Amino acid sequence: MFAREIKNKVYYVGVQDWGRRLFDSLIPLPDGTSYNSYLVKGSEKTAIIDTVDPDFAEEYLQNLEGLDKLDYIITLHSEQDHSGSIPILLNRFPQAQVVCSPKAVDLLKEHLGLDPAIIRAVEDGEIISLGDKSLRFIHTPWVHWPETMVAYMPETRILFSCDFLGSHSAGTDLYDNGDPLVMEAAKRYYAEIMMPFKSQIRGNLKKVRELNIELIANSHGPIWNHPEDIISAYEDWVSDRVDNKVVIPYISMHGSTRKMVDYLTKELVSHGVKVELFDLAVTDIGKLAMALVDAATIVIGSPTVHVGPHPIVAYATLLANAIKPKARYAAVIGSYGWANKLVDGILGLMPGLKPEVLGAVICKGEAKEPTLKELSDLATLIAEKHKAL
Ligand code: FEO
Q1: Please, are residues 296 and 245 in contact by the beta-carbon 8 Å criterion?
Q2: Separation of 163 CA from ligand 1 center, angstroms?
Q3: What is the spatial distance between Cα 358 and Cα 301, in angstroms, rounded to a whole number?
Q4: Closest residue by CA, ligand 1 atom 1
Q5: Residue 224: pLDDT above 90?
Q6: Which atom of ligand 1 is nearest to the CA of 163?
Q7: What is the residue extent of each domain of the chain?
């Protein structure tokens, strides 16, 4: 059995997916990911907490070789990267009971074909005893699906959090060890996966705050042995606080929009505003998502293709709409050849965001006066708005 003991007969039995580069065929994973699974041996009962992506089932079963008894398969989240190996595990341990939240019962039935008769749904606060250890289940919806929950083991002070408080990276280190690269991966993960649910996460963080935690054993990335770091980072990310920062995702085909972006950037910087530029033709969309976690303003720059926004700008705008950053202000800048519906085209793609639109600066061909003056005025307005925050 390739099991790494974390603490007092709690073992890591997960797998590393070093080569994965996209999650949900959408989210860039530059450093791969892991599917963390935990084996808990109590004095009376044995449990596994979350399984692994079924593509890794063979390696997973090798990790569990020699295990002769399993009472509970606890699934904190029904997405297949954690639940997908439950049927394989059940083949080997047919007497095991699957434990999940009430909302997960139907998901496990529909996604994995599990028989509800072998499933035990646990209520918020319910405790399952393993003998000298116990697991208290705390419902934490929307991290990442509506059925998600976490499990706290008071005897070891371990919080099993599944997707919640995770980070996408593959590696051989069991723990974060205060590595800033782990925190960067966690911020990217938050931006790409958790940010749309920030209001629900606020409530879930309060539940986590009440626990006396030594380790956060999540199901992606290293275990947090500095739990305060990630909890306080999340509290900041989901708060209303924004940075004095403008994020400008843009495309330029012949240089006109790029010139506007550069001009606006210099004007903003002269007002003391930080700016982050993302040329969408080459950018890592995950970096853009991270920058949006705490930016006060987003300015979208696009040339006109036919009469609407460039399709790559449209894609990035749709993505921003999906991940729901907390930007308070937005603006559109860009250029056109003969006709344009740029502004309506872009703003119409983000109905889920509610920023105050500070204006649009659109010019025919290359930017010159009065366009440059309009850009200067936009920079002044943004800086004033930021100062008032
Ligand atoms: Fe890691 Fe929502 O699955």
Answers
A1: yes
A2: 5
A3: 14
A4: 163
A5: yes
A6: 1
A7: 4-237, 243-388
